[in-house]
Amino acid sequence: MHAYRSHTCGALRPEAVGETVRLSGWVHRKRDHGGLLFVDLRDHYGVTQLVVEPESPSFPAIERLRAESVIRIDGEVVARSAETVNPNLPTGGVEVRISDVEILSAADELPLPVFGEPDYPEDVRLKYRFLDLRRETLHKSVALRSSVISSLRRRMIDQGFTEFQTPILTASSPEGARDFLVPSRLHPGQFYALPQAPQQFKQLLMVAGFDRYFQIAPCFRDEDARADRSPGEFYQLDFEMSFVTQEDVFAAIEPVLAGVFEEFANGRKVTKPPFARIKFADAIRKYGSDKPDLRNPIEMQDVSEHFRGSGFKVFAGMLDKDRKVQVWGVPAPGGGSRAFCDRMNSWAQGEGQPGLGYIFWREGEDGGAGPIAKNIGAERAEAIRAQFDLKAGDAVFFVAGNPNDFYKFAGAARTRVGTELKLVAENEFKFCWIVDFPMYEWNEDEKKIDFSHNPFSMPNFDHEKFLALDNSDAGTILAMTAFQYDIVCNGVELSSGAIRNHKPDIMLKAFEIAGYDADFVEAKFGGMLNAFRYGAPPHGGSAPGVDRIVMLIAGSENIREVIAFPMNQQAQDLMMQAPNEVMEKQLKELHIRVAPPIAEKKS
Fold first, then answer.
1. Which of 12, 46, 466, 562 has the fewest CB within 10 Å, making it most exposed?
2. CB under 8 Å to 25, separation ≥6 — which residues?
3. Angle formed at CA 329 by CA 328 and CA 334, multiple of 5 degrees
């Protein structure tokens, strides 16, 4: 027999009754039932119940064991009685009567319970992550991550993509987040950077003629943590394709994403390709977000004309004073009660807003109810009701001002209404593409035009006219869109992508408009720019986030629940105690000296 096991702890079934087996694993929990000692033995594959009688030579050793000790046992498989069968356990029809035990590793008192998975402070969970990973939910999520990656890889290869690995030590480049820098020992005063993404390398692979590239790529960005973003590092399904339009990219990746979600959906509905295409401007207007959760059916609309010149002087005065002002309506099907409207108004005040105006409709009452309805009159209130196709028992909320200033709050109100009224289709994965992102935006801090999204994107603009643009064309520039797109699922942005700018003259002009001269572009992106001068195919791609894909499939609220060894929100690895200080000898080899932090000036 094998030194440690003849079966795993998830393998035994009633067919094995009468066999002598050997199992190894962790003591999940112990229970004393009138002299009989029951032990749940756990390994990666499952749990098997063991039983040992007081007269057994193994009894004293097992009685002394703490939970999470590692043991090897020999014993006979016996059938459980009908009343003790556990239908929730694959091995629940049998148990093993122990004849011999070997303690492979005795556990100290646990700083973190494994059985039962009670809530525990995150700093303790991360410090003892190796224990935390034994807990069933997290263990399954991390195993799920491996299965998802395997499925993604298989599906990409089936789509004709070739897997490549790109460098980890590379040059610093301004891609929107802070770089992690690595000092060079051989080149004093110079630094490598860990890649924020394999952006330039994957484009160079297209220039090299490889046609369809992908990798499960590690990316490194020195940015703050969020619930859907891990600080420091993350992984993405990075891919690029040659001789493609935007629609070709969509057609290649949609079946991959839909397929992997369907594989692990466990009965949840998944959007079938082709996914909806929503223009950026429409997403902002309808949903108040460029990553809308389409499980929420609410769509906002502009209702400004119903308030222009009306008796509701607050909105009417704003509309007359500033042509940029608009009034948006957030419909609330089923929200037509004063109690709900007052609750939403209180929520808005809690969000730092003065309040949230509303109209609601009751059975047998013309013109709607509420202060706004009284001020604008029955005819205007009826026109608003008709615009949203609302009925008695429904309501609509209003947000007014410059949409650039209020659209995020309006989107939050839409989300709040949908959640409170239980309009969101919970057991569904709803995908969409957000397209036609603005190429540029106004940087208010620096008082200049800047890139809005990805600087390597191809402008959706006539190339000859683009090359002729100058500072007097600011209006045209800020209205310009690009071949940039995001894929969104359930309100989570999975990735950004683009058809790339593969023409050196267009790229230099694109950076010039954003205030970067040719010398800057040559210094930072010279390798890619030079490659484009020797014949570059039209190409494009994207990079859906693996961590976010797994988080959605697992139903986790926090991305750290699907990563084996994440950092905390302060970008610290509490288990390995990183970051930490290094020896003076190491610093000298790298030709660097640690300077004290710059003191903040007191006001």
1. 46
2. 9, 41, 42, 43, 48, 70, 71
3. 165
Residue (of 352, 325, 332, 349) closest to 397 by Cα position? 332
Q: What residues have CB less than 8 Å from 508, skipping those under 6 apart?
A: 518, 521, 529
Q: Could you give the residue ranges of the DSSP H alpha helices within 190-241? A: 199-207
Residue whose entry in the numeric block shows the structure tokens 């200049």: 448
Query: What is the spatial distance between Cα 503 and Cα 544, in angstroms, rounded to a whole number?
Result: 26
Res 603 pLDDT > 60: no
| Cβ count near 90 (within 10 Å) | 15
Query: In angstroms, what CA-CA distances link 325 with 372, 395, 396, 408, 585?
Result: 18, 23, 19, 15, 62
- Residues 316/308, Cβ–Cβ less than 8 Å: yes
Q: E strand or H helix at 1, and its extent?
A: none
Query: Token digits for 424?
Result: 């969101």
What are 588's two structure tokens?
């000298």
Q: How many CB atoms lie within 10 A of CB 57?
A: 11
Q: How far apart are CA 170 and CA 196, in angstroms?
A: 10
Both tokens assigned to 116: 């039962």
C-alpha 420/C-alpha 435 separation (Å) is 30
**Residue 454: which pLDDT band, with cuts at 50, 70 and 90?**
confident
Closest CA to 447 of 507, 515, 508: 515
Rounded-to-integer distance, Cα 70 and Cα 68, Å: 6
- Rounded Cα distance between 501 and 480, Å, is 15
Q: Measuring CA to CA, how many Å separate 277 from each of 16, 375, 431, 485, 526?
A: 55, 39, 10, 9, 34
Give me 183's structure tokens: 């000092």
Size of the chain, expressed as the number of residues it contains: 603
Q: How far apart are CA 263 and CA 261, in angstroms?
A: 5
Question: What amino acid is encoded at 447 in this protein?
Answer: K
Q: What is the pTM of this model?
A: 0.92
Task: Report the pLDDT value the prediction gives residue 234, as an integer from 0 to 100.
Answer: 95
User: pLDDT tens digits for 478-502?
Assistant: 999 999 999 999 999 999 999 999 9
Output the CA angle 572-577-578, nearest 5 degrees. 50
CA-based torsion, 424, 429, 430, 433: positive or negative: positive
CB 358 within 8 A of CB 398: yes
